[in-house]
Amino acid sequence: MAKLALQTIEEESRRDEGNEFLSFSLAGESYAVPLASVLEIVVPPPLTEVPRAPKAILGVASVRGRLLTVVDLRVVLGVEGESPPNKGRLLLGRGPEDELMAARVDEVDQVLRLPDDQVEQVALGLGADSTEVVRGIGRPGHSSSIVLLDLGAALSRGTR
Amino acid sequence: MTDYGEKGGEDFLGEAQEIVESFSRSLLGIDSAFKKGRTDPELVNEAFRAIHTLKGLAGIFSAVELGQLAHKLEDLLGEVRLGRTVLGPELLDVLFAAIDVMQGFIGASKSGDTPRDEAALAAISAAIDGVIRGGAKTSNEDYGVDPAIWSVLTEYEEHRLRTNLAAGLSLYRVRSQFDLMTIDQEIEALKDRARQLGEVITYLPTGEVTDRDVLELDLILATGVPEAEVQAALSNPARQIMKIPTVSRGAMQPAAPVTGTPLSAALAPESVGTRPVASDLHFERPGTRVEMKASVRAVRVDIRKLDYLMNGLGEMAILKSSLEALAVRIRANIDSKARRDLARLLHAFDRRLGDMQEGILEMRMVPLSQVFDRLARGVRQTSRELSRDVRLVVTGAETEIDKLLVEELGDPLLHMLRNAIDHGIEALDERARVQKPQTGTIALNAYQKGNHVVIEVEDDGRGIDTARLVQKAVELGSLSTSEADQLSHGEALALMFLPGLSTKSGITELSGRGVGMDVVKTNISRIGGVIDVHSELGIGTKITITLPVTLAIVRALLVRVGSQVFAVPFASVAEVLILETRPRIVEGKEVLSLRGTTLALCRLSQLLRIEGNPSSGKKFVVVAQVGERRLGLVVDEIFGQKDVVIKALGRSLAKVKGFSGATEFDDQRVGLVLDVAAIVEEVWSSTESRTKALSYG
Q1: Which range has the worst mean pLDDT, B284-298, B481-495, B581-595?
Q2: In this predicted model, what pLDDT tens digit does every residue of B603-649 receive, in sequence order?
Q3: DSSP-derived secondary structure for A14-56
Q4: What is the pLDDT of residue A4?
Q5: How far apart are CA A62 and CA A43, in angstroms?
Q6: Can you tell me the distance from the alpha carbon of B282 to that of B276, in angstroms, rounded to the nearest whole number?
Q7: In this complex, do B662 and A48 lie within 8 Å of one another by their Cβ atoms?
Q8: Chain B closest-CA separation from residue A34 CA (Å)
Q9: Is A119:A136 a contact under the CB 8 Å cutoff?
């Protein structure tokens, strides 16, 4: 019985892969990135600041012996507000030139399945600056909306 | 299983590359001997053997074009060996050109391209045919040597004997007995001795000794050394040395009577008959055996695998530190014996780990000759293209350095050498006018200095005209006129590293080919090196590169600046001081007097913009030395030294200057490794820093 349920879930997830998003919160707002672009979610190891690095680079950290550049998504997105200290997660993804990098977020929420009719392509008026990072707006369920980001683009932007 | 095939292919390319490089080394030797008016038959043989091996290798891996070219070259070198084709500058040019073609083939196979191999092959083949055609006649002069000797010589040996006799040398027969158990080594030893006197034409068994454990050989030696010296050098109770009568061409005597006896008999004072010893002893020709030994002892390893091992070791070192910390924590709770045992184990572990790190580091080390040989070829080519008479003198090619660094060094050094020929060494008429020797000399020196390798390129050319350099920099707007007036000689010279600055009006094909000295400098800095220039107008120029021996593990000094801990590679630390006196201010910069010299200071907290905790207490000065430049780095605290495994920062941080990498400390925290060379450079080149001239030298 349990086995059967598991199979069903697997099948379902395979079917919906293209529409799966990982949602997370950042300075009180909700965002999501395509689940397939997140290689791993890790508890942040101690972070070392890199002097004179671009503002969006929080520093470097070692994840199982690999040295990663950590990007602060708040700076990339230009959102104000405090992040709760001693919390947060790192989303590992591919940045420019396929480099393995990490984006720091406040809290990882859940995996969302968004059928195509619940995704609005990027709207004008969000500011030209964020067009490449923002992929669209998701409207899961009825009223709430969530900003859909491109993780790779966000990481690239952070290194500029 | 395709994996296996690919691997085989990679190995083949690596080996082919090595053979081509060894071939190139032999050619350079032949070339330099030729310039002194000599032909070194041993080098010709080496080149011949290398090409022969390459031909076989190409056959196995069906590298058709490479195989065909090797075959052609083998023919050509065969002709040269036998004296049928005479060595000359054109022939050498063709051989050097062939190296480039072969490397093109190998490079193309590596990258998987299929360029127009056939066209290149056809062109070089035609060139080879061109030089073979100018063949020379073979003389039949016998110099009064017993025809029995001539009759047993191979064509090659015959040619060598004739060449030596034509040069008026004497011929000796050295008859020795060898124990079959040790014959290999003893023959080699004898040949080595004999080669110091002259050329070994051949050696053959006499077949006269009946003891089955002993073999008697006759070695025929051609030499110009007086007989007494030959006797003295080779004399041994088990040896007889006899001079073989010869007649010089000038005083031709009737030839010795034709006896028809075999060589052994003809050479023997009292002949006792012969038996074919050689065939049942598997007597080996020299050379082949030595090469096989070398190839069996070496293993070719991908450098990434070494890096992997190195990382593993780094992690083991971290584990070890954790174990040590644990040991400290439980020390109170265990009895004294267990405590001692634990300490002993940890100590032993530490030592083994150190040994292994050293071992792996050593595996990464290769001699600089790997790149120097290629450079020598570049120098030869450039000097021919520009019709400059240039001699390259190389010292210290055996100095070892990290494989990765060697690969990064080739292009910058080649550019520097080309510059030396193109801009440094004067044309012939100009050299005559300033009474310099006709042949210009470029010295390429390497030596190790502590944890650094120093490479110098020095020429005896016209030197760098700093006045024109400054003028050019002002024209380009990189410098204001008032700034220009204040430049020291050293600072003016450093202008040559500015982008777009080339002093020679009229760009030649060579210098127009690509990079300037600014790129050279960037490339050298990228691998942690520093460039210094010295030049005197009319006398010459010397450019010095100082590089770390290796990049992977370094001993570092841990320092604190604000709340951050940095690793400073020990290799660039000259000394550490406590900052007791208030620094003096000279032209807006802090300096310190240090044993009579002035040391410029740089507060790392300011340079790196690190806030917080300016700590009231005393500060420390880490005196960094890179090349000839010194700079005092002011830090808040010093924690001592530590071996650190350096990992590269991501490309995403490539634009951030001042750090050569990062390392993991024991508590999983990452520490940045200061790029001392870049920091010194940054401070020196900051325009307002007028004090730098003070600490020069």
Answers
A1: B284-298
A2: 999 999 987 655 567 889 999 988 778 899 999 988 887 777 777 78
A3: HHTGGGEEEEEEETTEEEEEEGGG--EEEPPPP-B--TT--TT
A4: 47
A5: 11
A6: 11
A7: yes
A8: 22
A9: yes
Q: Which residues contact A77 (CB under 8 A, 6 or more apart)?
A: A26, A31, A130, A133, A149, A154
Which tokens belong to B359? 């071992």
Q: Can you give the residue ranges of every domain in chain B?
A: 2-133, 147-294, 303-359, 368-464+503-548, 553-695
Inform me whether the C-beta atom of residue B337 falls under 8 Å from chain A C-beta atoms.
Answer: no
Q: What are phi and psi of B584, to 5 degrees?
A: -80, 155
User: Which pair of structure tokens corresponds to residue B63?
Assistant: 């590298």
User: Are A103 and A71 contacting, i.e. CB atoms less than 8 angstroms apart?
Assistant: yes
Per the CB < 8 Å rule, is A50 touching B653?
yes
**CB-nearest partner of B652 from A45, A46, A99:** A99
Beta carbon pairs, A and B, within 8 Å: 75
Q: Return the structure tokens found at B78.
A: 């065969």
Residues of B in contact with A155 (CB under 8 A): 652
Buried b (16+ CB within 10 A) or exposed e, B206-229: bbbeeeeeebbbbbbbbbebeeee
Q: What is the pLDDT of residues A105-139, one digit of tens each?
A: 999 998 988 888 888 876 555 544 545 788 888 88
CA distance B526 to B651: 13
Q: Which two tokens stand for residue B22?
A: 């060894």
The 3-class SS string of B201-218 reads EEEEECCCCCCCCEEEEE
DSSP, collapsed to helix, strand or coil, labels residue B94 as helix
Give the CATH architecture of domain B553-695.
Answer: Roll (2.30)
Confidence grade of residue B502 (pLDDT, cut at 50, 70, 90): low
Sorted by where each begins, the domain ranges of chain A are 19-158
User: For residue A71, what is the nearest residue in chain B, using CA coordinates?
Assistant: B652
Confidence category of residue B76, pLDDT binned at 50, 70, 90: confident
The residue among B670, B642, B650, B662 whose CA lies nearest residue B357 is: B642
ipTM of the predicted structure? 0.83
B662: contact with A, CB 8 A cutoff:
yes
Q: Is B7 helix (H, G, I), strand (E, B) or coil?
A: helix
Search chain A and give the residue with CA nearest B669.
A46
Fold for the domain defined by A19-158: OB fold (Dihydrolipoamide Acetyltransferase, E2P) (2.40.50)
B217 or B254, greater pLDDT: B217
